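User: Fold this; tokens only.

Assistant: Input:
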Amino acid sequence: MDSEIKELSEKYFTEALGFLSGIVNINSDSNNISGCNQTGDIVAEYFKGLGFTIEEGIGKGNRKYFHLYNQSPDAPAYLCMGHLDTVFPESLGFNSFSIKAGTGYGPGVIDMKGGIITLWLALRILKDLNRFNEIPLKIIFNSDEEIGSESVLEIFNRVKPQLLGIFNFEAARDSGALVKARKGVGDFKIIVTGRSAHSGSHFTSGANAVNELAYKILEIIKLTDLENGITVSPGIVSGGTKVNVVPDHAEVIFDVRIKNNDQRERMIEALNGIVKKNKFPNTQSKLEGNFSRPAFSSTGDVLNAFKYFKESAKSLFNLEFSAEETGGAADINFFGDLKIPMLDGLGPCGGKDHTVDEFIVLESIKERASIFVKSIINLNKDRSSK
């Protein structure tokens, strides 16, 4: 089977590159909804040609998303994921695909239009192997991953009970490794109110909100626990109006990352404790925000799924595959509370994503597609035999 998989990856590689070029040349910055929709329409047609039924949904602002399936829409299935949007506004001028010495360049070429093409090539190989219809598959494509994935939260929750496994085609790590865990993400704000006064003649009449906020910032950063994978990072701080006025308002917006979902409630409890304890009199504080994405943790199911990919990489290309943890979040995080096989970073190799030097190693498209094909065949075979 190995030689046939590799031959088919070569057979359809030129078509895959044409597909990649076509969608990279369309600007699909998250805020360019028409460009995102145009990209999605092209992607949907390519996957429809493989035999998928496609449900097209409309989210906020007339933004499209796509739910694809090759069996019944309610049947248990493996979910493959990808996003259509990029972070590059058209005005930046970084709007076209190019190739130089086996490397492709362009907006979103690795994050993550190259991943979409890798998935398409894998499924094209499966079809020629006459395995496409025997493996139950779903795909969800959205175009707001870079800004929160609000458009697909409802469908994510709807398909959750049906899933046998989840495979996200975000790019490989810089080392070529897959992703076996992503931290959960919380966005929080502490707002402090005090009492304004002239900072010279009525200093003691004031209650300085900035002073209280400074105290609280020092307290929240103490919650960082690198050994247990917890980080707290204040990102935006504001307060006061003029230098000679005691400020009656101050706030900090901060990022919290957790390694596993057991840490979520403990962090919220700790933050509430800090907010309730005021250091300076006549100030009041409140906490806003929550965790927007659960942690996707390296469970036994995840590690078991990785074994199939490790074996396939060795068999097909004599590659020593590894899997890494990362602090960055992705759409797979929304499924982090499920105890099923899951892996991320199944897309191609490349780098410098979110910069105008973003690139993809074109040869890796064939490799990653082939590895997925063999892995999903063997994983599904073992599941079906139990």
